[in-house]
């Protein structure tokens, strides 16, 4: 006997602002937030200097002074917060592009925006020959937005075509990959080695001066993305349906793309291009919640994925801290193979 679906459970909030919240999405988001908090505390305890949970909380609440407080507040906490915020931001960016393209392959990694940010950073390091963090970050931001403009120009020249966006993005990403390789091959070995290491994507050595501006900027962008959640869901129903519901389709789409590109470029400017998170986190959230109604589950999953990968990268090989991008790239490759295989079976 078949199972009868009586519908999903929703929580109605009445007041000045009426909200209709999916109970399952809220539950999944809450579970991942708790997991992120627990993993954050664990991450603050491990390292060359092992600390207890009570020592970590003492340092966080100002009850401890000295070297241990410096380790927690100045060395480990920026890394943990960066992993959480950047992971959430990349997941939101991936969710936006996957909704716009209506394709699970629609992410900044595949579409070429991450490659564009990397190209901008390489131009600063290898052509302008500046290793200043500020100039590298600026180059990454400019590279990401220039790439986005070129892709948008080609992909939407004759109207909205999500699949065309993916094809154009892959083509631009391939071209930028060749440009990046050429820049690295023509530069001095020492500089190329530094630039190549940055290109893997890493949270190693991050501090407040590097992380805080990007964290604050991405948090503001995440707020705007959450506000745009409802128009984004309306756009998934199609252009005509969205317009009939009062959504200015082209303007809303452009604004969402700007938000997603800005998040990706900001995160890439600080830690380098980190793959997999923007691609997989929205799909993991979609499969767990069985709905794409909210960006919040994607953000919570993205924060957990990047923080977990960073903790694992620090402890995988004793005496060595791997760049987090090495781990996410490996997992992302396996996930991409599985996704393509799953799509092929679904289409058969």
Topology:
Elements: E1 10-13, E2 19-22, H1 23-45, H2 53-60, H3 67-101, H4 108-111, H5 113-127, H6 133-155, H7 162-185, H8 189-200, H9 208-227, H10 229-235, H11 239-244, H12 249-271, H13 277-289, H14 296-315, H15 324-347
Antiparallel strand pairs: 1-2
Helix pairs in contact: 1-3, 1-14, 2-3, 3-9, 3-12, 3-13, 3-14, 5-6, 5-7, 5-8, 5-12, 6-7, 6-12, 9-12, 13-14, 14-15
Please give the number of β-strands: 2
Count of discrete structural domains: 1
Query: How many distinct helices?
Result: 15
Helix coverage percent: over 70%
CATH topology: ABC transporter involved in vitamin B12 uptake, BtuC
Low-confidence stretches: 1-6
**What order do the strands of the largest sheet run in, or round the barrel if closed?**
1-2
What is the annotated CATH architecture? Orthogonal Bundle
Oligomerization category of the chains in this entry = single chain
Distance between the termini: 27 Å
Instruction: Classify the secondary structure makeup into a structural class.
Output: mainly alpha
Helix and strand pattern: EEHHHHHHHHHHHHHHH
Major sheet summary line: 2 strands, antiparallel
The proportion of residues in beta strands is under 5%
Shape: globular
The CATH C-level name is Mainly Alpha
Mean pLDDT: 84
Can you say what the CATH homologous superfamily is?
ABC transporter involved in vitamin B12 uptake, BtuC
What does the radius of gyration come to? 21 Å
């Amino acid at each position: 006997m078949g199972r009868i679906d009586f519908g999903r459970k929703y929580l109605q909030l009445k007041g000045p602002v009426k909200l209709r919240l999916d109970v399952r999405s809220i539950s999944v988001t809450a579970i991942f937030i708790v997991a992120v908090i627990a993993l954050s505390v664990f991450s603050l305890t491990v390292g060359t200097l092992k600390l207890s949970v009570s020592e970590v909380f003492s340092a966080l609440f100002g009850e401890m002074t000295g070297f241990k407080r410096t380790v927690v507040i100045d060395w480990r906490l920026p890394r943990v917060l960066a992993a959480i915020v950047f992971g959430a931001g990349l997941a939101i960016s991936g969710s936006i592009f996957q909704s716009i393209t209506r394709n699970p392959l629609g992410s900044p990694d595949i579409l070429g925006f991450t490659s564009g940010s990397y190209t901008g950073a390489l131009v600063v390091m290898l052509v302008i020959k500046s290793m200043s963090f500020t100039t590298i970050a600026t180059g990454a931001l400019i590279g990401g937005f220039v790439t986005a403009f070129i892709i948008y120009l080609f992909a939407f020249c004759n109207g909205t075509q999500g699949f065309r966006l993916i094809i154009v993005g892959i083509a631009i990403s391939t071209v930028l990959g060749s440009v990046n390789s050429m820049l690295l091959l023509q530069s001095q070995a020492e500089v190329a080695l530094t630039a190549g290491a940055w290109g893997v994507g890493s949270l190693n050595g991050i501090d407040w001066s590097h992380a805080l501006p990007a964290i604050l900027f991405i948090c503001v962008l995440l707020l705007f993305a959450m506000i745009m959640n409802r128009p984004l869901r309306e756009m998934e129903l199609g252009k005509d349906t969205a317009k009939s519901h009062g959504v200015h389709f082209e303007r809303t789409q452009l604004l969402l793309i700007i938000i997603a590109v800005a998040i990706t470029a900001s995160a890439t400017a600080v830690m380098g291009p980190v793959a997999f998170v923007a691609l997989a986190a929205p799909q993991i959230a979609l499969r767990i919640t069985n709905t794409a109604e909210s960006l919040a589950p994607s953000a919570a999953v993205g924060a957990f994925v990047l923080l977990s990968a960073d903790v694992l990268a620090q402890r995988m090989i004793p005496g060595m801290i791997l760049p987090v991008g090495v781990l996410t790239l490996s997992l992302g490759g396996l996930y991409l193979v599985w996704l393509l295989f799953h799509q092929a079976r679904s289409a058969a």
